[in-house]
Here is the input.
Amino acid sequence: MGTQDYLQFSRKESGVRLCANVLIVASPKHAEAIDWTGESDAMPGLVVLPCENTAAVPLDAATAASLIVLEVDPHNRRSMDRLAELKHKLPGQPVVAALPDASVALVRMLVREGVDDVVSLPFKFEELLETVADVLAQHRRRRTGELRLAPLFAVVGSIGGCGATSIASHLAAALAENETSGRGVAIIDLDLQFGAVADNMAAAGRGTVADLLGAEERLDEDLMRSVARPVIDGVHVFAAPEAIMPLESVETDRLLRMLDLIRQHYAYVVLDLPSNWTNWSLSALSTATSVMMVVELSVASLRQARRRLDLFSSVGIEGDEVQLVVNRVERRLFKTIDVGDASATLGRPVLGSVTLEDPLVSTAQDQGLLVKQVSRKSKFNADIQAISKILAERFAAGGPA
Ligand SMILES: Nc1ncnc2c1ncn2[C@@H]1O[C@H](COP(=O)(O)OP(=O)(O)OP(=O)(O)O)[C@@H](O)[C@H]1O
Ligand SMILES: [Mg+2]
Here is the structure.
């Protein structure tokens, strides 16, 4: 990953939310006027379907879309019937109505018909981008509530080797230890090329996240359970694929469906992410309940953390739920940089700090064990327990009421 990708991501605010498949169904006049050359990176999943505004919307295209922007003529009964039919056939599908000028009364009427929002015609890129991003975010929030999805904790590294994977796997175990619903904790290794969670935790089995990402309509609870690899204490590992998987082969919609499915069946879900950022990994991150940026007390780590936090902000991942976890902290009296400096430099709260325990952590991992299985009195373990406690107090476990 190079600077190029960062530039692409930061080109448009909210760009990441629009990795979703957006279908515009508009009359040829308005469809043909869409010429957003140069903007297509910000909406890679955009499909424009020219279609008279009374003609039926093809159901297969509509079903494949995450959101439909539908041209509506409120003064034409057949156009309104078409909207009603679409809402009837795909009741859960977000729909944005497009029309030349919408009065307040008209917007109200369209909302009553099940429309989520309205954009003006001719289409304006910025307006569309913003409206679609908002509607998708609202739907996702609603679905999270309805499905009682488990909290998703994403652990991201500032620089390579800063300990993100070690913290993610031990955090999953700590959450599971104190979890009483019996639903267990899932850790998903999305470091699709170099993932080591399964090795570090000696999670035996054959299934990997690639099986779930490639499953399409076969993706269901049974398949998910067949891929989950149980390790100790109610932790299930969703392993990275054995063979290196091309990062561009991941489809964001499938990945988000997989995450939703796993979140429906566990009490907590922990996500380990690759250090290279792609549209899909940012999209996954944008659905997280809490993001933990692992930093070390070094200039290099803090500098890279800054760049990544800026990247996250540029795609709307910011606010209170992005926090720091300071790793490899040494209890020395004199330090050039301390935990407070990290927080002040990055303008983020510190969720917790984790002690350097060398070679205990790597020795345990080399044997496929957790630190607590090797040493009962480890500071590393106590530090992770403290972080897990804060998270569990803040975010109730997922699952039926
Ligand atoms: N607090 C710690 N004390 C001692 N060793 C640690 C600590 N945290 C991590 N390590 C060790 O540092 C090494 C790198 O850790 P890890 O693989 O978790 O980092 P990462 O950020 O996930 O790396 P990558 O960028 O490759 O994904 C491992 O050998 C691990 O055992
Ligand atoms: Mg890692």
The CA atoms of residues 292 and 323 lie 5 Å apart. The longest strand covers residues 322-329.
